[in-house]
Amino acid sequence: MSSVSPIQIPSRLPLLLTHEGVLLPGSTMRTSVDSARNLQLVRSRLLKGTSLQSTILGVIPNTPDPASDAQDLPPLHRIGTAALAVQVVGSNWPKPHYTLLITGLCRFQIVQVLKEKPYPIAEVEQLDRLEEFPNTCKMREELGELSEQFYKYAVQLVEMLDMSVPAVAKLRRLLDSLPREALPDILTSIIRTSNKEKLQILDAVSLEERFKMTIPLLVRQIEGLKLLQKTRKPKQDDDKRVIAIRPIRRITHIPGTLEDEDEDEDNDDIVMLEKKIRTSSMPEQAHKVCVKEIKRLKKMPQSMPEYALTRNYLELMVELPWNKSTTDRLDIRAARILLDNDHYAMEKLKKRVLEYLAVRQLKNNLKGPILCFVGPPGVGKTSVGRSVAKTLGREFHRIALGGVCDQSDIRGHRRTYVGSMPGRIINGLKTVGVNNPVFLLDEVDKLGKSLQGDPAAALLEVLDPEQNHNFTDHYLNVAFDLSQVLFIATANTTATIPAALLDRMEIIQVPGYTQEEKIEIAHRHLIPKQLEQHGLTPQQIQIPQVTTLDIITRYTREAGVRSLDRKLGAICRAVAVKVAEVQPKEAKLERSDVAEREVCREHILEDEKPESISDTADLALPPEMPILIDFHALKDILGPPMYEMEVSQRLSQPGVAIGLAWTPLGGEIMFVEASRMDGEGQLTLTGQLGDVMKESAHLAISWLRSNAKKYQLTNAFGSFDLLDNTDIHLHFPAGAVTKDGPSAGVTIVTCLASLFSGRLVRSDVAMTGEITLRGLVLPVGGIKDKVLAAHRAGLKQVIIPRRNEKDLEGVPGNVRQDLSFVTASCLDEQPEGAHPHPHRSALFHTAGTTKDIFNTNMK
Known about the structure:
It is found in: Peroxisome matrix. It is an enzyme of class 3 (hydrolase). This is Lon protease homolog 2, peroxisomal. Keywords: Acetylation, ATP-binding, Hydrolase, Nucleotide-binding, Peroxisome, Protease, Serine protease. This protein is an alpha/beta fold. It folds into six domains: about 10-125, Archaeosine Trna-guanine Transglycosylase, Chain: A, domain 4, CATH 2.30.130; about 145-225, no CATH class; about 280-320, no CATH class; about 330-510, 3-Layer(aba) Sandwich (Rossmann fold); about 515-580, Orthogonal Bundle (Helicase, Ruva Protein, domain 3); about 645-825, Ribosomal Protein S5, domain 2, CATH 3.30.230.10. It is built from 30 helices and 26 strands. Helix 5 (about 185-190) packs parallel to helix 7 (about 205-230), helix 11 runs antiparallel to helix 12 (about 305-320) and helix 13 (about 330-340) runs antiparallel to helix 15 (about 380-390). The longest helix is centred in the last third of the chain and has 30 residues, at about 560-590. The termini are far apart.
């Protein structure tokens, strides 16, 4: 029989320098290529080469990192492994690199480096025999007892593993089919060994030496497995299940390592998770889903991305409060006291909360109401929600909806997406840990809309009492009962809330505060809070109610109390500076010599000079405490007043009237100015007016033109055609603010009538109301906020549409006493109790008197 010639590798090989591990003949390894030399080698040989020989590389283990790209070639290890490049994968992120899958063929020795750039090429000498059909019997005879001993340890190691695992069974078959001389290299690459030990095996050119060095490694592995089996015998069945899902490269590593401990902890966590699922009180449908998912989790390798996702899902399902709730405090008397202590005024809101408590006493399973507090900023909408939760004895959770434009924020992401998570509703329930908290949906009027969906539409299911008992979050994919949750939404206006969402909520208006209410709030809540925050006491600072009124009227102009709170904070900071300056002087005085002060006191008494005593007291004692804040102190601390009463100055000539406007920030007074000039009969409107307000101006001028003769209104030329050779300019000051709405119609008519009659409008009268072309005065909204704005401005009389008279019931009693109200349903009707006048209408009279809105003196 003719002998088979061995396979020869090329005598010249390109060298691939690796630092990630040691490649042994017969093993496979993935290595990253990112250095300049290695990148050039891959591009030139592997990507452009076409022959089989171009895919054979010389792999040299390199201790220094080749990514450093040093100019000189680093020292090369003497022995390397000829390898076949099986796969090349490239990527440009985060920087250009390749990943190679290489299989070791045989050892070689570097004879001479022929070229260093662009990549090293060396002349090599093959050290191992490569035969296509090796003579196994002959090799066994040559190795003798050493080979049998190695084979015995290898079989013992493999049989200690679970033979039901396909990878382990395959390894067992390989021990019989592979040539014995290949086994040391293959097993060394499989078991847990260090790179230093692998390098020693690579340098062992002699086969006998290689066997001798590998046998201790196998023995060490076997002893580790025996020790593990002794310590983990009660869990033997669980261990086999875990081993069954490990890849072959992890089956044979040394037991007892940190990696094993992590897996044990994970298994314990899964057992605990399964126990929590069994003992949880979740509904039957949710329990079935959890049981199904835990079974999938047990069969799933931990390296799979879905493993972490499924585990997180199960942990969330266990943590949700399916049947856990708090017991409501149903003492109505105590609840009323608590609400009154936390918030001043807000009677309508407190009444609604007490009604809920009363019905809750009569019926235990009452569904939670869905309230919406609508009012300007700073009136306490958010804080009253927290007080409601404290009154009921429930957990409180706030969800800020301002700027939210993705419906997944409400209903969660589906678990098919990477990084999926539950929505804010389910996440809030997990945070509070009960299924009947108070949820505050803050700024519900500022929800956005985008390509990711409409969150306002997603809230329809949440805020519908007939549907939210079966709310389904996309992440959970099972129903959750929200019927016991008390939802409270807050908004500045209902104009931007979709009609369908608005229909599901009970609207409770929270108007602005009157001056008297602000004074009470300041002295009950704001001033004590600011004193505590700044470390002051009432013995150090006093703010009288007169000073508080000055701050409210001259330094703030708002519906709420936020600006007032900031001004009080500025006062406390200024006083804190004074107090801090005094304290070092007091400390220095206490440390001074007592004897010297006694001598000084005796000297003063002997001379009998009271003025000297006074002078000494001025020098030694701190300023008088408490520091009283008056108007002069306000001027020093806050500066000159920001708002002065300029109403009478603005109405010092005809063609100016005061209107009332509603904004999301509360009511405001609004001046309307008119001027006429020679022209072609044009009407000019300025002040950033909307279309509705422009139409109101055209309606006003049309009504006045049609009734000019009746009310003796003429232009500058004495003509009853008001636009004959006359241009009219209407301006609404604060031109940077956009204005719109129909409620300025009455004000525009009064302003133009003042202009053409030459009479001044009374400076203490404000008005609001929509007009028609026939002179009817129609009702408008926001009456309470508008009346409060007139009261804040110091006005005495307000004209409103007659059909808005019912809205005055919501105005505080002290405000109604300070103001007089005139109601009108038509521009040209005569008010009840007024004396007839041939050229005056109801608009130009006050109720029950013959005094008109215009002053009798002509300008």
